[in-house]
Design brief:
Blueprint lengths: L1 H30 L4 H23 L6 H34 L6 E9 L14 E4 L5 H15 L3 E4 L3 H9 L5 E5 L3 H7 L3 H4 E10 L15 E8 L13 E8 L4 E6 L5 E3 L6 E3 L8 H12 L5 E6 H10 L3 E5 L3 E2 L6 E2 L2 E5 L1 H9 L7 H20 L8 H11 L1 E2 L3 H14 L4 E6 L2 E8 L4 E8 L1 H15 L14
Parallel strand pairs: 2-3, 2-4, 6-11, 8-17
Antiparallel strand pairs: 1-4, 1-5, 6-7, 7-8, 9-10, 11-16, 12-15, 13-14, 18-19
InterPro entries: LytR/CpsA/Psr_CW_biosynth, LytR_CpsA_psr
Family: Belongs to the LytR/CpsA/Psr (LCP) family.
Protein name: LCP family protein
Length: about 475
Protein backbone atom coordinates (compact mmCIF):
# COMPACT_ATOMS: atom_id res chain seq x y z
CA UNK A 1 0.00 0.00 0.00
CA UNK A 2 2.85 2.33 0.84
CA UNK A 3 4.39 1.81 -2.59
CA UNK A 4 1.07 2.67 -4.27
CA UNK A 5 0.75 5.83 -2.17
CA UNK A 6 4.26 6.99 -3.10
CA UNK A 7 3.54 6.33 -6.75
CA UNK A 8 0.42 8.48 -6.65
CA UNK A 9 2.19 11.27 -4.74
CA UNK A 10 4.90 11.41 -7.39
CA UNK A 11 2.30 11.56 -10.14
CA UNK A 12 0.37 14.31 -8.35
CA UNK A 13 3.53 16.40 -7.81
CA UNK A 14 4.54 16.00 -11.45
CA UNK A 15 1.01 16.76 -12.69
CA UNK A 16 0.85 19.95 -10.63
CA UNK A 17 4.04 21.24 -12.26
CA UNK A 18 2.76 20.28 -15.72
CA UNK A 19 -0.54 22.09 -15.07
CA UNK A 20 1.20 25.21 -13.71
CA UNK A 21 3.49 25.28 -16.76
CA UNK A 22 0.42 25.28 -19.03
CA UNK A 23 -1.24 28.01 -16.92
CA UNK A 24 1.86 30.24 -17.03
CA UNK A 25 2.37 29.89 -20.80
CA UNK A 26 -1.35 30.39 -21.48
CA UNK A 27 -1.44 33.52 -19.32
CA UNK A 28 1.62 34.94 -21.07
CA UNK A 29 0.04 34.21 -24.45
CA UNK A 30 -3.40 35.67 -23.77
CA UNK A 31 -2.15 38.77 -21.91
CA UNK A 32 -0.25 39.64 -25.12
CA UNK A 33 2.52 41.90 -23.83
CA UNK A 34 5.23 39.23 -23.45
CA UNK A 35 7.31 38.98 -26.68
CA UNK A 36 7.00 35.65 -28.51
CA UNK A 37 10.75 34.98 -28.30
CA UNK A 38 10.60 35.20 -24.50
CA UNK A 39 7.59 32.88 -24.45
CA UNK A 40 9.51 30.37 -26.56
CA UNK A 41 12.52 30.56 -24.23
CA UNK A 42 10.29 30.05 -21.16
CA UNK A 43 8.49 27.19 -22.93
CA UNK A 44 11.77 25.43 -23.82
CA UNK A 45 13.06 25.79 -20.23
CA UNK A 46 9.81 24.42 -18.77
CA UNK A 47 9.81 21.44 -21.18
CA UNK A 48 13.46 20.68 -20.38
CA UNK A 49 12.67 20.80 -16.66
CA UNK A 50 9.68 18.50 -17.11
CA UNK A 51 11.75 15.94 -19.04
CA UNK A 52 14.67 16.04 -16.58
CA UNK A 53 12.39 15.80 -13.54
CA UNK A 54 10.45 12.91 -15.08
CA UNK A 55 13.55 10.74 -15.07
CA UNK A 56 14.68 11.93 -11.63
CA UNK A 57 11.28 11.32 -10.07
CA UNK A 58 10.11 8.12 -11.79
CA UNK A 59 13.39 6.35 -12.63
CA UNK A 60 14.96 6.57 -9.21
CA UNK A 61 14.15 4.49 -6.18
CA UNK A 62 11.02 5.84 -4.56
CA UNK A 63 12.75 6.60 -1.29
CA UNK A 64 15.99 7.94 -2.76
CA UNK A 65 17.11 11.39 -1.64
CA UNK A 66 17.44 12.57 -5.26
CA UNK A 67 13.82 11.63 -6.06
CA UNK A 68 12.50 13.28 -2.88
CA UNK A 69 14.57 16.42 -3.46
CA UNK A 70 13.35 16.64 -7.06
CA UNK A 71 9.73 16.35 -5.91
CA UNK A 72 10.30 19.12 -3.36
CA UNK A 73 11.89 21.38 -5.97
CA UNK A 74 9.01 20.59 -8.34
CA UNK A 75 6.51 21.85 -5.75
CA UNK A 76 8.58 24.98 -5.16
CA UNK A 77 8.75 25.61 -8.92
CA UNK A 78 4.97 25.12 -9.20
CA UNK A 79 4.43 27.74 -6.48
CA UNK A 80 6.73 30.17 -8.29
CA UNK A 81 4.78 29.64 -11.50
CA UNK A 82 1.52 30.39 -9.67
CA UNK A 83 3.02 33.70 -8.47
CA UNK A 84 4.43 34.47 -11.92
CA UNK A 85 1.05 33.74 -13.57
CA UNK A 86 -0.68 36.05 -11.09
CA UNK A 87 1.71 38.94 -11.80
CA UNK A 88 1.49 38.48 -15.56
CA UNK A 89 -2.32 38.42 -15.30
CA UNK A 90 -2.30 41.44 -12.96
CA UNK A 91 -0.08 43.39 -15.33
CA UNK A 92 -2.45 42.61 -18.19
CA UNK A 93 -5.35 43.89 -16.09
CA UNK A 94 -3.46 47.11 -15.40
CA UNK A 95 -2.85 47.68 -19.12
CA UNK A 96 -6.53 47.01 -19.85
CA UNK A 97 -7.48 49.48 -17.12
CA UNK A 98 -5.22 52.12 -18.64
CA UNK A 99 -6.86 51.53 -22.01
CA UNK A 100 -10.41 51.98 -20.68
CA UNK A 101 -12.40 54.91 -22.05
CA UNK A 102 -11.61 57.96 -19.92
CA UNK A 103 -14.11 60.63 -18.88
CA UNK A 104 -13.30 63.90 -17.17
CA UNK A 105 -15.73 65.31 -14.64
CA UNK A 106 -16.68 68.97 -14.64
CA UNK A 107 -17.79 70.29 -11.24
CA UNK A 108 -19.86 73.49 -11.08
CA UNK A 109 -20.36 74.99 -7.62
CA UNK A 110 -22.84 77.37 -6.04
CA UNK A 111 -20.69 79.52 -3.74
CA UNK A 112 -21.56 81.95 -0.95
CA UNK A 113 -19.50 84.03 1.47
CA UNK A 114 -18.65 82.25 4.71
CA UNK A 115 -20.90 84.51 6.79
CA UNK A 116 -23.83 84.19 4.38
CA UNK A 117 -27.20 83.25 5.92
CA UNK A 118 -27.70 80.79 3.04
CA UNK A 119 -27.15 77.33 4.50
CA UNK A 120 -28.26 75.04 1.66
CA UNK A 121 -29.49 74.98 -1.92
CA UNK A 122 -33.17 75.04 -0.95
CA UNK A 123 -32.84 78.68 0.13
CA UNK A 124 -31.57 79.77 -3.31
CA UNK A 125 -34.96 80.76 -4.83
CA UNK A 126 -35.13 83.56 -2.25
CA UNK A 127 -31.80 85.08 -3.33
CA UNK A 128 -30.00 86.56 -6.36
CA UNK A 129 -27.24 84.52 -8.03
CA UNK A 130 -24.66 85.54 -10.65
CA UNK A 131 -22.52 83.67 -13.14
CA UNK A 132 -20.23 84.26 -16.13
CA UNK A 133 -22.03 82.61 -19.03
CA UNK A 134 -20.03 83.69 -22.09
CA UNK A 135 -17.03 81.40 -21.52
CA UNK A 136 -19.11 78.20 -21.69
CA UNK A 137 -22.81 78.82 -22.25
CA UNK A 138 -23.78 75.15 -22.60
CA UNK A 139 -22.27 74.26 -19.21
CA UNK A 140 -23.94 77.21 -17.48
CA UNK A 141 -27.32 76.41 -19.10
CA UNK A 142 -27.00 72.79 -17.98
CA UNK A 143 -26.07 73.85 -14.44
CA UNK A 144 -28.96 76.29 -14.08
CA UNK A 145 -31.42 73.66 -15.33
CA UNK A 146 -30.07 71.13 -12.78
CA UNK A 147 -30.30 73.64 -9.93
CA UNK A 148 -33.85 74.58 -10.86
CA UNK A 149 -34.80 70.93 -11.18
CA UNK A 150 -33.62 70.49 -7.59
CA UNK A 151 -34.87 73.70 -5.89
CA UNK A 152 -37.23 75.49 -8.29
CA UNK A 153 -36.96 78.83 -10.11
CA UNK A 154 -33.94 81.00 -9.25
CA UNK A 155 -33.11 84.67 -9.94
CA UNK A 156 -30.00 84.94 -12.08
CA UNK A 157 -27.65 87.79 -13.00
CA UNK A 158 -24.96 87.58 -15.71
CA UNK A 159 -21.50 89.04 -14.98
CA UNK A 160 -19.29 90.29 -17.80
CA UNK A 161 -16.12 88.63 -16.45
CA UNK A 162 -14.65 86.97 -13.36
CA UNK A 163 -13.49 90.29 -11.89
CA UNK A 164 -17.06 91.55 -11.89
CA UNK A 165 -18.33 88.22 -10.57
CA UNK A 166 -16.02 88.33 -7.55
CA UNK A 167 -16.70 92.01 -6.92
CA UNK A 168 -20.47 91.45 -6.86
CA UNK A 169 -20.13 88.63 -4.34
CA UNK A 170 -17.81 90.51 -1.98
CA UNK A 171 -19.85 93.73 -2.19
CA UNK A 172 -23.01 91.65 -1.62
CA UNK A 173 -24.66 92.87 -4.80
CA UNK A 174 -25.54 89.19 -5.26
CA UNK A 175 -26.03 86.51 -2.61
CA UNK A 176 -24.31 83.63 -4.39
CA UNK A 177 -22.34 82.86 -7.54
CA UNK A 178 -22.22 79.86 -9.86
CA UNK A 179 -18.63 78.93 -10.68
CA UNK A 180 -17.21 76.16 -12.84
CA UNK A 181 -14.39 74.78 -10.66
CA UNK A 182 -12.16 74.59 -13.74
CA UNK A 183 -12.15 78.42 -13.66
CA UNK A 184 -11.50 78.78 -9.91
CA UNK A 185 -7.85 79.64 -10.60
CA UNK A 186 -9.00 82.76 -12.51
CA UNK A 187 -11.12 83.85 -9.56
CA UNK A 188 -8.24 83.30 -7.14
CA UNK A 189 -6.09 85.56 -9.31
CA UNK A 190 -8.63 88.28 -8.52
CA UNK A 191 -8.89 87.40 -4.83
CA UNK A 192 -6.16 85.22 -3.32
CA UNK A 193 -8.21 84.54 -0.17
CA UNK A 194 -11.29 83.49 -2.18
CA UNK A 195 -11.26 79.84 -1.06
CA UNK A 196 -10.87 80.87 2.60
CA UNK A 197 -13.60 83.53 2.38
CA UNK A 198 -16.26 81.35 0.77
CA UNK A 199 -18.01 77.98 1.01
CA UNK A 200 -19.72 75.68 -1.47
CA UNK A 201 -23.39 74.92 -0.68
CA UNK A 202 -24.30 72.93 -3.79
CA UNK A 203 -22.48 71.30 -6.68
CA UNK A 204 -23.48 69.97 -10.09
CA UNK A 205 -21.32 67.29 -11.75
CA UNK A 206 -21.13 66.77 -15.50
CA UNK A 207 -19.08 64.17 -17.40
CA UNK A 208 -17.14 65.42 -20.38
CA UNK A 209 -17.12 63.36 -23.57
CA UNK A 210 -14.17 60.99 -23.91
CA UNK A 211 -11.33 62.10 -26.19
CA UNK A 212 -11.14 59.69 -29.09
CA UNK A 213 -7.74 58.33 -30.09
CA UNK A 214 -6.46 58.47 -33.67
CA UNK A 215 -4.96 54.99 -33.60
CA UNK A 216 -1.98 53.83 -35.66
CA UNK A 217 0.29 50.79 -35.64
CA UNK A 218 2.54 52.06 -32.85
CA UNK A 219 5.27 49.50 -33.62
CA UNK A 220 5.56 50.56 -37.26
CA UNK A 221 4.51 54.20 -37.64
CA UNK A 222 5.44 57.42 -35.81
CA UNK A 223 2.76 58.95 -33.59
CA UNK A 224 2.17 62.03 -31.43
CA UNK A 225 1.15 62.18 -27.77
CA UNK A 226 -0.03 65.31 -25.95
CA UNK A 227 1.16 65.41 -22.33
CA UNK A 228 -0.97 67.60 -20.09
CA UNK A 229 -0.05 68.31 -16.48
CA UNK A 230 -2.00 70.40 -13.99
CA UNK A 231 -0.73 71.98 -10.79
CA UNK A 232 -3.18 70.21 -8.50
CA UNK A 233 -2.96 67.38 -5.97
CA UNK A 234 -5.45 64.54 -5.57
CA UNK A 235 -8.23 63.67 -8.03
CA UNK A 236 -7.01 63.52 -11.62
CA UNK A 237 -10.40 63.33 -13.34
CA UNK A 238 -11.47 66.91 -12.62
CA UNK A 239 -11.43 69.37 -15.55
CA UNK A 240 -8.79 72.04 -14.92
CA UNK A 241 -6.29 74.27 -16.66
CA UNK A 242 -3.16 72.68 -18.12
CA UNK A 243 0.09 74.06 -16.70
CA UNK A 244 2.52 71.63 -18.30
CA UNK A 245 2.05 71.15 -22.03
CA UNK A 246 4.31 68.99 -24.12
CA UNK A 247 3.98 67.29 -27.48
CA UNK A 248 5.85 63.99 -27.61
CA UNK A 249 6.61 62.22 -30.87
CA UNK A 250 7.60 58.53 -30.84
CA UNK A 251 9.06 56.90 -33.94
CA UNK A 252 9.45 53.11 -33.60
CA UNK A 253 11.32 52.94 -36.92
CA UNK A 254 14.07 55.52 -36.32
CA UNK A 255 13.99 54.87 -32.55
CA UNK A 256 13.72 58.58 -31.85
CA UNK A 257 11.60 60.53 -29.36
CA UNK A 258 10.84 64.20 -30.02
CA UNK A 259 9.90 66.50 -27.12
CA UNK A 260 8.27 69.82 -28.04
CA UNK A 261 7.67 72.12 -25.05
CA UNK A 262 4.74 74.59 -25.29
CA UNK A 263 4.91 77.44 -22.73
CA UNK A 264 1.76 77.58 -20.59
CA UNK A 265 1.21 81.29 -21.35
CA UNK A 266 1.68 81.09 -25.12
CA UNK A 267 -0.89 83.38 -26.78
CA UNK A 268 -2.89 81.49 -29.39
CA UNK A 269 -6.46 81.34 -30.77
CA UNK A 270 -8.77 78.85 -29.08
CA UNK A 271 -10.00 76.18 -31.48
CA UNK A 272 -13.58 76.53 -30.21
CA UNK A 273 -14.10 80.14 -31.29
CA UNK A 274 -10.87 81.66 -32.65
CA UNK A 275 -10.55 84.00 -29.66
CA UNK A 276 -7.02 84.58 -28.34
CA UNK A 277 -6.13 83.19 -24.93
CA UNK A 278 -3.30 81.61 -22.95
CA UNK A 279 -2.76 77.99 -23.95
CA UNK A 280 -3.03 76.95 -20.28
CA UNK A 281 -6.67 78.06 -20.34
CA UNK A 282 -7.57 75.54 -23.04
CA UNK A 283 -7.61 72.85 -20.34
CA UNK A 284 -10.52 74.60 -18.61
CA UNK A 285 -12.67 73.76 -21.63
CA UNK A 286 -11.57 70.12 -21.53
CA UNK A 287 -8.80 67.98 -22.98
CA UNK A 288 -10.38 67.98 -26.43
CA UNK A 289 -10.02 71.76 -26.65
CA UNK A 290 -6.33 71.55 -25.65
CA UNK A 291 -5.69 68.88 -28.28
CA UNK A 292 -7.66 70.71 -30.99
CA UNK A 293 -5.87 74.01 -30.31
CA UNK A 294 -2.47 72.29 -30.33
CA UNK A 295 -3.42 70.52 -33.58
CA UNK A 296 -4.15 73.95 -35.10
CA UNK A 297 -0.71 75.12 -33.96
CA UNK A 298 1.40 72.25 -35.30
CA UNK A 299 -0.86 71.22 -38.23
CA UNK A 300 -0.59 67.50 -37.41
CA UNK A 301 -3.09 65.02 -35.97
CA UNK A 302 -2.38 64.18 -32.34
CA UNK A 303 -2.96 60.48 -31.79
CA UNK A 304 -3.16 60.15 -28.01
CA UNK A 305 -2.96 62.07 -24.77
CA UNK A 306 -1.47 61.44 -21.32
CA UNK A 307 -2.66 63.51 -18.37
CA UNK A 308 -1.21 63.75 -14.87
CA UNK A 309 -0.98 66.07 -11.86
CA UNK A 310 1.44 66.64 -8.96
CA UNK A 311 0.27 63.54 -7.09
CA UNK A 312 0.61 61.40 -10.23
CA UNK A 313 4.11 62.63 -10.92
CA UNK A 314 5.33 61.98 -7.37
CA UNK A 315 3.82 58.48 -7.32
CA UNK A 316 5.59 57.56 -10.57
CA UNK A 317 8.96 58.87 -9.37
CA UNK A 318 8.50 56.94 -6.11
CA UNK A 319 7.70 53.72 -8.00
CA UNK A 320 10.87 54.17 -10.05
CA UNK A 321 12.95 54.54 -6.90
CA UNK A 322 13.82 58.13 -7.81
CA UNK A 323 15.33 59.49 -11.02
CA UNK A 324 18.74 60.78 -12.02
CA UNK A 325 18.50 64.03 -13.96
CA UNK A 326 21.12 66.36 -15.43
CA UNK A 327 21.14 70.06 -14.51
CA UNK A 328 23.27 72.50 -16.53
CA UNK A 329 23.59 74.80 -13.52
CA UNK A 330 23.48 74.86 -9.74
CA UNK A 331 20.41 76.33 -8.02
CA UNK A 332 18.23 76.03 -4.92
CA UNK A 333 14.53 75.37 -5.40
CA UNK A 334 12.14 77.89 -3.86
CA UNK A 335 9.80 75.02 -2.96
CA UNK A 336 11.46 72.83 -0.34
CA UNK A 337 14.83 74.56 -0.55
CA UNK A 338 16.49 71.60 -2.28
CA UNK A 339 20.04 72.07 -3.53
CA UNK A 340 20.43 71.06 -7.18
CA UNK A 341 24.04 70.53 -8.27
CA UNK A 342 25.46 71.19 -11.71
CA UNK A 343 25.60 67.80 -13.42
CA UNK A 344 23.89 64.58 -12.31
CA UNK A 345 21.35 64.67 -9.48
CA UNK A 346 19.52 61.66 -8.06
CA UNK A 347 16.16 63.04 -6.92
CA UNK A 348 13.35 61.56 -4.86
CA UNK A 349 9.69 62.40 -5.57
CA UNK A 350 9.55 65.70 -3.65
CA UNK A 351 12.90 66.87 -5.03
CA UNK A 352 11.89 65.93 -8.58
CA UNK A 353 8.63 67.89 -8.29
CA UNK A 354 10.49 70.95 -6.96
CA UNK A 355 12.98 70.60 -9.85
CA UNK A 356 10.31 70.66 -12.59
CA UNK A 357 8.33 73.48 -10.93
CA UNK A 358 11.27 75.85 -10.38
CA UNK A 359 11.36 79.02 -12.51
CA UNK A 360 12.34 81.92 -10.22
CA UNK A 361 15.98 80.80 -10.03
CA UNK A 362 16.47 81.36 -13.77
CA UNK A 363 16.85 84.46 -15.91
CA UNK A 364 14.47 83.11 -18.55
CA UNK A 365 11.99 81.74 -15.99
CA UNK A 366 9.28 79.65 -17.69
CA UNK A 367 11.51 78.72 -20.63
CA UNK A 368 14.15 77.27 -18.28
CA UNK A 369 11.40 75.45 -16.42
CA UNK A 370 10.19 73.99 -19.72
CA UNK A 371 13.68 72.69 -20.52
CA UNK A 372 13.96 71.13 -17.06
CA UNK A 373 10.61 69.42 -17.61
CA UNK A 374 12.03 67.98 -20.84
CA UNK A 375 15.12 66.81 -18.93
CA UNK A 376 12.89 65.10 -16.39
CA UNK A 377 10.80 63.34 -19.05
CA UNK A 378 13.98 62.23 -20.79
CA UNK A 379 15.37 60.85 -17.51
CA UNK A 380 12.13 58.98 -16.75
CA UNK A 381 11.95 57.52 -20.28
CA UNK A 382 15.54 56.28 -20.04
CA UNK A 383 14.94 54.62 -16.68
CA UNK A 384 11.66 53.03 -17.78
CA UNK A 385 13.29 51.69 -20.96
CA UNK A 386 16.41 50.32 -19.24
CA UNK A 387 16.81 46.60 -18.41
CA UNK A 388 16.85 47.55 -14.71
CA UNK A 389 13.11 48.27 -14.88
CA UNK A 390 12.34 44.56 -15.30
CA UNK A 391 12.72 43.95 -11.56
CA UNK A 392 10.00 46.50 -10.71
CA UNK A 393 8.04 46.48 -13.97
CA UNK A 394 4.75 45.27 -12.45
CA UNK A 395 4.89 47.80 -9.59
CA UNK A 396 5.69 50.70 -11.94
CA UNK A 397 2.89 49.75 -14.33
CA UNK A 398 0.45 49.41 -11.44
CA UNK A 399 1.41 52.87 -10.19
CA UNK A 400 1.06 54.35 -13.66
CA UNK A 401 -2.45 52.87 -14.01
CA UNK A 402 -3.53 54.79 -10.90
CA UNK A 403 -1.58 57.96 -11.67
CA UNK A 404 -2.30 58.92 -15.27
CA UNK A 405 -5.13 59.17 -17.77
CA UNK A 406 -4.63 58.17 -21.38
CA UNK A 407 -6.77 57.27 -24.37
CA UNK A 408 -4.23 54.89 -25.90
CA UNK A 409 -6.02 51.53 -26.35
CA UNK A 410 -4.66 48.57 -24.37
CA UNK A 411 -3.82 46.67 -27.57
CA UNK A 412 -1.45 49.45 -28.63
CA UNK A 413 0.12 49.70 -25.18
CA UNK A 414 0.69 45.94 -25.23
CA UNK A 415 2.33 46.22 -28.63
CA UNK A 416 4.66 48.98 -27.38
CA UNK A 417 5.63 46.97 -24.30
CA UNK A 418 6.29 43.91 -26.48
CA UNK A 419 8.49 45.96 -28.78
CA UNK A 420 10.45 47.48 -25.89
CA UNK A 421 10.98 44.15 -24.11
CA UNK A 422 11.88 42.39 -27.35
CA UNK A 423 14.26 44.96 -28.86
CA UNK A 424 15.39 47.00 -25.84
CA UNK A 425 16.15 49.92 -28.19
CA UNK A 426 18.38 52.80 -27.14
CA UNK A 427 16.03 55.73 -27.78
CA UNK A 428 17.50 58.95 -29.19
CA UNK A 429 15.66 61.81 -27.47
CA UNK A 430 15.55 65.20 -29.23
CA UNK A 431 14.14 68.35 -27.59
CA UNK A 432 12.79 71.64 -28.87
CA UNK A 433 11.00 74.58 -27.27
CA UNK A 434 8.57 77.12 -28.70
CA UNK A 435 9.68 80.56 -27.52
CA UNK A 436 8.29 84.09 -27.56
CA UNK A 437 8.19 87.51 -25.89
CA UNK A 438 6.29 88.62 -22.79
CA UNK A 439 3.39 91.03 -23.25
CA UNK A 440 0.04 92.04 -21.77
CA UNK A 441 -2.87 91.14 -24.04
CA UNK A 442 -6.65 90.62 -23.76
CA UNK A 443 -7.47 86.98 -22.93
CA UNK A 444 -10.87 85.52 -23.75
CA UNK A 445 -11.28 83.46 -20.58
CA UNK A 446 -10.26 86.29 -18.26
CA UNK A 447 -12.23 88.99 -20.07
CA UNK A 448 -9.38 91.49 -19.71
CA UNK A 449 -5.65 91.91 -20.27
CA UNK A 450 -3.28 89.34 -18.80
CA UNK A 451 0.42 88.51 -18.94
CA UNK A 452 1.10 86.29 -21.96
CA UNK A 453 3.90 85.10 -24.25
CA UNK A 454 3.55 86.18 -27.87
CA UNK A 455 4.98 83.22 -29.81
CA UNK A 456 7.90 83.74 -32.15
CA UNK A 457 6.47 82.69 -35.52
CA UNK A 458 9.84 81.35 -36.66
CA UNK A 459 9.90 79.19 -33.53
CA UNK A 460 6.51 77.68 -34.34
CA UNK A 461 7.56 77.19 -37.96
CA UNK A 462 10.72 75.38 -36.85
CA UNK A 463 8.72 73.17 -34.48
CA UNK A 464 6.34 72.28 -37.32
CA UNK A 465 9.28 71.42 -39.61
CA UNK A 466 10.78 69.10 -36.99
CA UNK A 467 7.41 67.40 -36.48
CA UNK A 468 6.80 67.02 -40.23
CA UNK A 469 10.24 65.47 -40.76
CA UNK A 470 9.74 63.23 -37.74
CA UNK A 471 6.38 61.99 -39.01
CA UNK A 472 7.93 61.36 -42.45
CA UNK A 473 10.38 58.91 -40.82
CA UNK A 474 13.36 61.22 -41.21
CA UNK A 475 16.06 61.15 -38.56
CA UNK A 476 16.10 64.60 -36.97
CA UNK A 477 18.55 66.57 -34.87
CA UNK A 478 17.16 69.61 -33.06
CA UNK A 479 19.05 72.68 -31.85
CA UNK A 480 18.71 71.55 -28.21
CA UNK A 481 19.33 67.86 -28.92
CA UNK A 482 19.12 65.58 -25.90
CA UNK A 483 19.11 67.84 -22.83
CA UNK A 484 20.08 64.86 -20.65
CA UNK A 485 23.46 64.50 -22.34
Amino acid sequence: MKKIDNKYIRRIVYSIQFLMSIVLLSTMYFIRFVPMKYMMIVGIILIALMVGEYFLIFYKKQGSKRSLLTQFLSLVLSCLMVVASFYVYRTGQVVDLLGDEQFQTRAISVIVLKDSPIKNEYQLPEHLLSHVSYVDESTMDYTVSQIEKEVGQISLDDSSDFHQLVTKLYQKDVDAIILDEAFRSLVEQEKESFSDDTRVIFQVKRDEAAVNAKSVDVTEKPFLVYISGNDEYGDLTAVSRSDVNMLVGINPTTKQILLISIPRDIYYPLHRNGEYDKFTHTGMYGLQESIDTLTDMVDQDINYYVRMNFTSFMDIVDALGGVTVHSPEEFTTKIGGYQIQEGENHLNAKEALAFVRERKSFVDGDFARGRNQQRMISAIVKKVCSPAILTSFSQVLDTISQSIETNMPSEEMNALVQMQLSQMPNWDIQSYQIIGDSASMPCYSVGMNASVIIPNELSITQACEYIDQFMDNEKIETELGDLEQ
